């Protein structure tokens, strides 16, 4: 890592870029439709953009032109946003607030929220297919397969189903990891891997797969810790809700200090996965930022 | 059309084949997950399989080996089934019965139904990406783009959003067609076109696009007519619901006879779209069957 490398500046610039891409993608794919506004509201709620930043950090290590990674960056944020909209629904986690604002169904009603989620999920694949203007078609087809696997019945959806089933049950560390590997880990890992798949870089793909799994877990542990010690104003949502719902979390299973140590171990393992590769400053910075954060 | 060509037998054999493919696809992509059962229940409810039959009818005209068209056939039925699950939800159409059985959320609860729909939608793209074992990757990427467009914010989802918004409104014939072109027409058209896209057959693609638009409309008009004069036992759901909900339909706008004539016109136009092409027996039979049916 170069001594003067400014991760905060890198991240700030990329978040602006991603936000512009997201605006353009919604307009291009949903402009003039009845569902555009709900999609836009949920997408532009000011998220951290961790997943598109992972795409860019991994991608720029292989090709520094950010534009080359536009489609996978937009696709993973579309998927992430759809999953938040559906997770917040009354039949699911029944959350009224997200990032300090009313959740999508609170503003647009349940029907529109379900449809906005469906549209974002579907359009994610449409956006990713657009990458065939930049990358070989075989790589794009592989990328579609990877994203479907990460988001589908054995990935994100299974994680959410397991999480709902675990409510009020005795959940051990192995179960907790099985949930999070799917619910947050699968898409985070896919975000890190997609650029390597598009660029056909097998060595990067293996390293980024390991990196993504460690970062995903570190990120989730940090989320659990913030639910205990975070500032509700910074988080844009109440804290203490996991305890109130009697939910299994890393701090409950490992203690607050144990959870912090575990998160640090995962960050160290993520860094170690990248050894011997060049241009990994942003990836390393992001791994640390996934844990050292206030929201 | 050969005089002895038996459409009913062709259809029966293909439905069996499609059902086996669907069983295998659920097992392969969702086996061992918590969401498998709800996906399976909704998928195997005994639908007419119109969309996969369209894939096979169009595909077999270009290559008679049914197996070549497996992935697009499964993908369109996954998308169709997801759309039914979400449409039936309490926040949407709030239907308790579908094909004579309790709807997915009635059996598995709303959360599982939302997730089963999400999983089917996502896995549809995973299944379609599997077609790269049979077809050129560029064609598979084009097929993914086509399916995303048909199912996404300007297709199926916009149709459902417009349909919900139209409830209790004065809806004219142009509005009604705008709804149905998206809500049912887009996916039916995509089903007919996908084989031509995979096989890279531009002339077929144009003809099948026109054919699909006419069949889609004919099918929807027939649905509206069945809601007036159909047998609830055959349909597996109550009739008269459109009138009860004060819903705009073809029989209400054109009268029962006018609607029937319009459906016949669409079938004739669908047939005309195929003029000059060979091996179209199944496509012609399906266009007629979309209208002459009891369920």
From TrEMBL, chains A, B:
Entry-linked PROSITE patterns: POLYPRENYL_SYNTHASE_1, POLYPRENYL_SYNTHASE_2
PANTHER family: FARNESYL DIPHOSPHATE SYNTHASE
Record GO biological process: terpenoid biosynthetic process
Superkingdom as given in the UniProt entry: Bacteria
GO cellular component: cytoplasm
Listed name of the protein: Farnesyl diphosphate synthase
Catalytic activity: isopentenyl diphosphate + (2E)-geranyl diphosphate = (2E,6E)-farnesyl diphosphate + diphosphate
GO MF assignments: (2E,6E)-farnesyl diphosphate synthase activity; metal ion binding
Family from the record: Belongs to the FPP/GGPP synthase family.
Species the sequence originates in: Candidatus Hydrogenisulfobacillus filiaventi
EC assignment: 2.5.1.10
Listed Pfam families: polyprenyl_synt (PF00348)
Keywords, alphabetical: Isoprene biosynthesis, Magnesium, Metal-binding, Transferase
Reported cofactor(s): Mg(2+)
Gene that specifies this protein: ispA
Keyword Isomerase: no
């Amino acid at each position: 890592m170069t001594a003067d490398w400014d991760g905060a500046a890198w991240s700030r610039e990329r978040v602006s870029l991603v936000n512009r891409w997201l605006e353009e993608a919604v307009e291009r794919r949903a402009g003039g439709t009845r569902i555009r506004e709900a999609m836009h509201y949920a997408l532009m709620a000011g998220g951290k953009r961790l997943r598109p930043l992972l795409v860019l950090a991994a991608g720029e290590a292989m090709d520094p032109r950010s534009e080359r990674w536009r489609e996978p960056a937009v696709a993973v944020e579309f998927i992430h946003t759809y999953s938040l909209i559906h997770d917040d629904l009354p039949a699911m986690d029944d959350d009224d607030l997200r990032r300090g604002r009313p959740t999508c169904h609170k503003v647009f009603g349940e029907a529109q929220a379900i449809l906005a989620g469906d549209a974002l999920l579907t359009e994610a694949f449409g956006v990713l297919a657009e990458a065939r203007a930049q990358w070989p078609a075989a790589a794009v087809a592989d990328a579609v397969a990877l994203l479907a696997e990460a988001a589908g019945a054995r990935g994100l959806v299974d994680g959410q189903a397991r999480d709902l089933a675990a409510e009020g049950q005795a959940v051990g560390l192995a179960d907790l990891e099985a949930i999070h590997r799917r619910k947050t880990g699968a898409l985070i890992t896919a975000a890190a891997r997609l650029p390597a798949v598009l660029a056909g870089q097998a060595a990067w793909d293996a390293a980024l797969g390991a990196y993504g799994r460690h970062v995903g877990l570190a990120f989730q542990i940090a989320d659990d810790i913030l639910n205990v010690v975070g500032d509700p104003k910074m988080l844009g949502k109440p804290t203490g809700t996991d305890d109130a719902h009697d939910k299994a979390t890393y701090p409950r299973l490992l203690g607050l200090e144990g959870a912090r140590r575990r998160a640090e171990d995962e960050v160290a393992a993520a860094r170690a996965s990248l050894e011997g590769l060049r241009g990994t400053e942003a990836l390393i910075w992001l791994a640390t930022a996934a844990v050292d954060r206030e929201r």
